[in-house]
Specification:
The protein is built from 3 helices and no strands. The protein is an all-alpha fold. The longest helix is centred in the N-terminal third of the chain and has 25 residues.
Amino acid sequence: MSNYDVYIVIGVILCGLAMPSFFGALAERRSPRASLFVMIVGASLIFFTHSQRPAQYDLREVPHAFVRVLAYLIR
């Protein structure tokens, strides 16, 4: 496991958690400031990881990164 595994996992989790809040705010005609900020931070982590290791982290490798991080946390 590398630090880049942690970065991509945190980025995907942040983006995934921010999406319902973002769309809920848009549906209620509110400004989605907080959720947009969280999505930008998550996307920045994903972009940073991909820019540092473009060949290692393609779409098929993301689930493996989740497993490596989870295994590291459990161990």
